[in-house]
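#help-structures

NK: newbie question. if I give both the sequence and a SMILES, will the prediction place the ligand too? trying with magnesium ion
OV: yes, paste both and it writes out the complex. here, I ran yours:
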Amino acid sequence: MNNGSKSRPRVSPIGARVLATFSRMTMSGPARAILVANQKGGVGKSTTVAAVAEMIASGGRRGRRVLVVDGEPQANVTVEDLGVSGDRGQSLAQTLQYGAPLIPVRDVRSNLDVIPGGPQLAVVGAGAHLMAENGINMATNFETQLAALCDVEGYDLVIIDSGPGDVPLLDTYLSTANYLLIPTRDDQASLGGVERLARRFWRARQGGASIQLLGVLLFDVNPRAVKRNQEVFDQVTEMLEGSGTTPFDITIRSAPAAAVDMRTLHKTAGELVALAQDDRRWRLSKLKDKQNPDRAMWTSDPSALAADYQELVRQIVARLVDYESRRVGERV
Ligand SMILES: Nc1ncnc2c1ncn2[C@@H]1O[C@H](COP(=O)(O)OP(=O)(O)O)[C@@H](O)[C@H]1O
Ligand SMILES: [Mg+2]
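OV: that's the protein plus ligand as structure tokens.
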């Protein structure tokens, strides 16, 4: 793990090399879909979906087209993280139930579209057993419509957020996505959520799903608790034995002040960096004018947090390249 670095990290737009890799990957096939899931809430799923999606989409001239699918009735990534009011999950619910085309909210950021989440999805989840009895296959409906939308829109990456509780929805996403990323906090309840999800993942694979485990991400980590972090890292590594993957080396540091700012301002970690600079300048100018500046943001410097996500994106892309080059090798 490399959260312990002492020097102040620099946050620049995602490296050109990383995104150049994406363009090479794009030439070899359709968009890839990463499901972010854990059967425990509050472990950083939605925050991570927004941060990673926004960072890949906003990579300057090399930004890639990204679609976030908010598969969660609570719609945190839609409403809180990205600040989109959305459609209460209506479009995704209609797709799952009736195979209707997915309707994205376009350009919520440059290169970034969203299929909103919302309470309509809870209705779908609750009625899933009836649908199955009537021969409705939510996974087929979702997969078909997602592929159709990706064909038209040319997304390079789809990232699916999910809730902890709705098992029929989770199973649908597990059988549609290509990759699974599991964020977790280091408490036993969250690690229990990882284990439960890992079991669902294996069941999905046994049922014919092609999803691969991309990795486990430790979230809300105290970079100074080196011994504890190593212990958790080892525990998760053991849990993943035989899965062909390991936890990500990068962990997302604990940043409660930045977390409040991100949710109240509807900004991702990367976006907060520029905002914090503006805020600092504004407060200085107020002080110069001998005025008392109101507190606009709680965090003074979100750049270390943003740098964690930047490194995470680098490691995600490296793992995607690895998996996809292996697949190309198998085909040859
Ligand atoms: N780096 C961080 N450190 C501490 N708390 C964070 C951090 N980033 C986000 N949070 C907060 O953690 C909580 C859970 O995050 P969230 O992404 O909603 O989890 P999930 O989607 O798994 O339920 C939220 O209140 C969020 O604001
Ligand atoms: Mg969430």
